[in-house]
Amino acid sequence: MQTHHDGTLDVPLYLARRPRSGAALALAAVLSAAMPIAGAAQQLTNANEKRFGEIRQLTFRGENAEAYWSFDGSSLIFQSTPTPGEGCDQIFILDPETGETELVSTGEGRTTCSYYYPGGERILYSSTHHFNRACPTPPDFSQGYVWAVYPSFDIFAANADGSGLRQLTNSFGYDAEATVSPTGHRIVFTSMRDGDLDLYSMLPDGSGVRRLTDHLGYDGGAFYSPDGTKIVWRAHYPETDQEREDYLALLAEGLIRPSALEIYVADADGSNRRQLTDNGAANFAPYWHPSGEKIIFSSNMDDPRGREFELYLINVDGTGLERVTWSEGFDGFPVFHPDGTKLAFGSNRNMSHEGNTNIFLAEWRDE
Description:
By secondary structure, the chain is mainly beta. It is built from 1 helix and 28 strands.
């Protein structure tokens, strides 16, 4: 994402989505009632995408993103606004074999960043419903392209069907972007509880909170490595006085500017931090390859306008950068199946209308 001299901003279709206002989705809303069943393999890739075998489209309408596998690889949990312009993102479970989906969040407020616990019987997501049943007010774009970090977001755990909802965080201020270690011992998340957007970890029940980062700037979207010993995340650390002033002024309004993000890796306790990318682009959505030796992520590094987001693979030491996708528009939120044979990701490819982002499933070729 890049700002031009005239103040305009180029952004991909998915990132250009604005949080929706209006009534919350009805609890009975289930995507499977309105979406076609995911069918046979389709020609949704091109000759440059050598890492992909057959690819299937799993969702077909609305705005869908951030699909994460259960640890046994049998289902995906994702966020969706099924009807564009109506309600806010809610959390759904998706059967990748049939395409059937089920609403598992409350249908109220705005939700984000869902994930499974290792056993598969519990899920995790963030929501604003306990503060207000309606969608939160969209961010003010008069200051350019910004993301809202709503202070009403808290982290919740529930049974896999959405029942037994339990609030894990209760400090006022943004608590979101939570994921669970494969070992089941800790949850990593982003919080503004100490005045900045830093990474923290906590026990599965929300207790035992520890701060992992302390550099001024945004730290978010963290994931544990397959063995639980490391984390990868996206970050923006303002360097000049003007950048710091801009960052802090926006943060005071519950906003951040995500036009420059880099990928970092560290030990699970936040020590031994290493920067993997250094290109000044919007690099985000990093995820571990099951081997623990590579990271896949999304970036607009190859588009001078900043509109085209593609997937890239990089070694954990920062070497071996490789472009994976070559599709017009947005490709992001890549997540490997636990056995490494498939990759789920969000994309504008084959979109039915402007802004239509869907979940795709590709066979993955390591060699």
